Amino acid sequence: MSAVIIYFTAITIFVINQHKPIMSKFPVVIIDDLYGALEDTAAVLEELGLFQIKGKFTSVRDAEVYFFKKDEKVYIIFCDIEMPDCSGLDAIKRLRNYCSHFVFVTGFAKEYALDGHKVHVDGLLSKPVEADELLDLVKHLKSKVPTSSTDRDLKPEPTIFLDFVDPKSELHLARKNGPPMRKHPENKRVYEKVPVALAEIAYLKKIGNYIHFYALRPNDQFVLLGVLNKRMMDMDDLLQQDPRFVRMDQSVFINLNYVKKVGLEGVSVGSKFLSVSKSRADELKRRLMLMDISHKL
Q1: What is the per-residue pLDDT for 24?
Q2: What is the homologous superfamily of the domain 159-296 according to CATH?
Q3: Segment 2-48, tens digit of pLDDT
Q4: Domain residue extents for the chain
Q5: How far is the C-alpha of 201 from the C-alpha of 242, rounded, in Å?
Q6: Is the CB of residue 165 less than 8 Å from the CB of residue 139?
Q7: CA 219 → CA 202, 262, 283, distances in Å?
Q8: 4-aspartylphosphate: which positions carry it (predicted)?
């Protein structure tokens, strides 16, 4: 008799469990330039069983490319507060539209100065991430009233699509049609467009038929982001409303945020000195004053 009761009890429990709703996991993305820290954070998220990790990236740009291609939104983006390729605030501007909540992860104590960020982020976690701290964060986010767009007052960073350039190729030009301009075994035709935030562009220069776009890394090394088969006039139309960019001559635009020194005949962007033409010197001076950069004389 007892065996029958146990049997039917087991069936009852099985049926109840079958009809018990399964809680869907929160889709998240993790960004950290330190691979070890990235994997440690991912391990804690996976152990809790509450999260579906949609992507793990070592740079903001890689995450940005992912979102452009997937065209999807995640519940939380966990992002290291100090990334080599951009600041925390830049990361928010570039990725905020792709998540419901943006959370900084930092190796510093919670007393880390967040005055410039806290109005735009939904949480802060200390490294290494602890399960209890993470659970408290989730409870906080679930109970949080959605912030209105007027409260955020944070515009997404404008983006331009460039032709990808193979960094191993001797030909630093991308052509969608036709043969390469110089023959070399490593030259590759390019059929892929990559998104690049305007904030990432330190300067751009017209070389031949192509405009080359360069980023400046923390070690003062320039990296070719991509190229476009466009006229400089097209760049005028795109950048004339952006106070960060100014034209130096017929072939060069600079991003004033990357200016390190101002000289009588031009400016230094990183380690590169870029001269200004006489016809554009007054405009450069005016823009430097507006951006409060003239003190770098």
Answers
A1: 67
A2: LytTr DNA-binding domain (2.40.50.1020)
A3: 444 433 333 333 333 443 333 468 899 999 999 999 999 999 999 88
A4: 2-152, 159-296
A5: 13
A6: no
A7: 14, 20, 30
A8: 80
pLDDT digits (tens, 9 = 90+) for 144-177: 655 444 344 445 667 888 887 655 444 444 444 4
Cα angle value 127/133/137 (rounded, 5°): 110
**CATH code that applies to domain 2-152:** 3.40.50.2300
| Cβ neighbours of residue 234 closer than 8 Å, sequence gap 6 or more | none
Residue of 107, 108, 109, 105 lying closest to 134 (CA atoms): 105
pTM here is: 0.51
Q: Say what percent of the chain tops pLDDT 90.
A: 27
